[in-house]
Amino acid sequence: MVRCRGYAAAVLLPTARGNKLLWGYSEDMDPELQEVFNMLVSSGINLYDTADSYGTGKLEGRSEQLLGRFLDEYPGSPAVRDDVRIATKLAAYPWRLTPKQERLMWDGLVAIYEEGLVDAVGVSNYGPKQLQKIGQYLDKRGVPLAAVQVQYSLLSRGSDQMAVKAACDDLGVALIAYSPLALGMLTGKYSLDDPSSLPGGPRGLVFRQVLPGLAPLLDLMGQIAKRRGKTLSQVAINWAICQGAVPIPGAKDMAQAKENLGALGWRLSDGEVRALNEAADRVPKAMVQNVFQTQ
């Protein structure tokens, strides 16, 4: 079973968040990433998310390879290392785009579980209807559905995502929230007044669409962060925790990893959560949902 001792999991590598194109990964980052991994494992974070497709070209599978190496070279207690859980994914294209082939993939999940290759199975970008279907299908075959991973944050909490959350609660499935910082827009580090602060490529296009209406929400997050002695990022991650989700924020260096850890060990009040939800509802243009999420 996928487990996490703390409140949050961690996507460790920038290859696990879009590789060079979106997150600027380069191989010379590997030594620090090993240090980041060692620190996170020693701090009690034991769930790491990856996929076979993270990385492009010659870097395909790089994230899985690095995690395997980092585990082998972890200098701490073997018992702590052995408690680490890796969540990985397979993007089965082009069959993933063909509904008639969906059942074959479900049978594949049953097979890898029965062969003892995994402790439990999960899905990604499944909507509420499809989640109910696979939940019932796997349950009949005695296969535990551990988690569904979807885009979920203060800027990704529309009716579709709330329906996914309700389905997770009904099935007893963990909701793993990817992009809990909305590609970084909820960190407060980017401003249209300073174009040089904006990322390039696809992220920059999204930022220019969403940031113009984000000031009231960021102002409220800043007020809560100041009162709590936290950062905006920590408020955003803690909000996801308060929703009962397992957020997987990225960490490409030690500073980001330590900041992520600051989201643990405390909780926003019910009033703060309500205020954040109301402010998020007033954002005129929220995040575009992943086009691959099903109904």
How would you portray this structure in words?
- The chain has a domain of 195 residues: TIM Barrel, CATH 3.20.20.
- Helix content is 43%, strand content 8%.
- Strand 3, helix 6 and strand 4 form a beta-alpha-beta unit.
Number of strands: 6
Distance between the termini: 26 Å
Chain-averaged pLDDT = 85
What's the helical proportion of residues? 40-55%
Top-tier CATH class of the domain at 87-281: Alpha Beta
Write the CATH homologous superfamily of the domain at 87-281.
NADP-dependent oxidoreductase domain
Order of helices and strands: HHEHHEHEHEHEHHHEHH
Radius of gyration: 19 Å
CATH fold name of the domain at 87-281: TIM Barrel
Beta-strand fraction estimate: 5-15%
Query: What strand order characterises the main sheet?
Result: 3-4-5-6
Q: What is the level-2 CATH architecture name of the domain at 87-281?
A: Alpha-Beta Barrel
